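Quick one, tokens below:
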């Protein structure tokens, strides 16, 4: 059983690229391409024609996926961007740990 470094609804910090230094919440994960869609990060403009399936036509801003190597998880306890360590808890479950403060971020 594997444990993802970044999951949906995590708060992440961008460490490189045009949005370096920003924080956002993960909306979705694209596991095949190792990317995440983060609110307010990597916003692109798309030009769409009017058709019955599109609610709004014109220039629409949307969040594009960003590679997970450019993101760092923000610890819920110490509120700092941190590397993630996975280890077994004393009760035998796998969990994500904060490398800054050593606290458990979440369990499986």
């Amino acid at each position: 059983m594997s444990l993802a470094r970044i999951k949906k609804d995590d708060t992440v910090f961008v460490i490189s690229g045009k949005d370096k230094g920003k924080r956002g919440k993960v909306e979705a994960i694209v596991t095949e391409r190792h990317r995440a869609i983060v609110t307010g990060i990597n916003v692109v403009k798309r030009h769409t024609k009017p058709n019955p399936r599109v609610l709004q036509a014109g220039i629409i801003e949307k969040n594009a996926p960003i590679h997970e190597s450019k993101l760092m998880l923000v610890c819920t306890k110490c509120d700092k961007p941190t590397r993630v360590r996975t280890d077994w808890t004393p009760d035998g479950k796998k969990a994500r740990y904060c490398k800054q403060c050593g606290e458990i971020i979440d369990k499986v």
